[in-house]
Specification:
five-stranded mixed barrel, de novo design (two linked rop proteins)
């Protein structure tokens, strides 16, 4: 059966001598795996489709949950992300979250649109701020939005529920107020933004029991 999907290349890995298996986050089917046949050959026609972060329309030959890319059309390859180290790292973190948290073959159309928009912001605007906003919206889309409240007092992260609280609990740790406030009001301080992202990484670990190594490159 032949199908068409609009999707983002999350990652690829070598398969046999000339093929690659790609993880694709699609609008229609969610996260899927698809094989690019002969993609490592010098004159392979689909090379442009198999690059990280590429947004494209893919024509697939599908059999149950196994897909092979027949052809496709690149919509956007976000060139300014690839040419900037910091933007590249932020984009890698974004796709790492998708790959690690979302189950395969489950459509998440709203989250797909959010992810495409976030990649555009990472490319065109402040990459770290765009990623902070993306992670917060990701939690909202997953039905696990964080309890962000304005306060003059102290703020704690309750590790049991992976959320913030104004009062300490037996499972809580105090959060640097400047870092916490930057989750509510954007800051121009790059160091604080990096600390925000590391805090969000901790929350991802608490919520989903996953450790994302991509955050270590910040």
């Amino acid at each position: 059966m032949e199908t068409k999907v609009k999707g983002i290349i999350l990652s690829t890995k070598d398969y046999l001598e000339a093929d690659k298996i790609a993880s694709i986050f699609s609008y229609e089917q969610g996260v899927i795996s698809a094989k690019f046949v002969g993609i490592k050959k010098e004159k392979a026609k689909l090379k442009a489709l198999a690059q990280p972060f590429t947004l494209a329309e893919f024509e697939l030959i599908s059999k149950k949950d196994f897909h092979t890319v027949k052809q496709g059309l690149v919509i956007d390859n976000f060139p300014q992300i690839i040419s900037d180290y910091n933007k590249t790292i932020c984009a890698f973190i974004l796709v790492d979250i998708i790959k690690s948290v979302l189950p395969k073959n489950k459509p998440e159309s709203d989250l797909f649109l959010l992810s495409v928009n976030a990649l555009k912001k990472i490319e065109q605007e402040d990459a770290e701020q765009a990623l902070i906003e993306y992670v917060l919206e990701f939690f909202n889309e997953m039905g696990e939005g964080l309890n962000l409240f304005e306060t003059e007092g102290r703020v704690y992260l309750d590790k049991m529920v992976a959320d913030f609280t104004p009062k300490p609990t037996i499972n809580s740790v105090e959060i640097d107020k400047k870092v916490y406030n930057a989750l509510i009001v954007p800051t121009s301080n790059s160091g604080i933004k990096k600390s925000c992202l590391k805090l969000l990484n901790t929350i991802l670990l608490l919520k989903y029991d996953i450790e994302l190594k991509s955050f270590s490159f910040l």
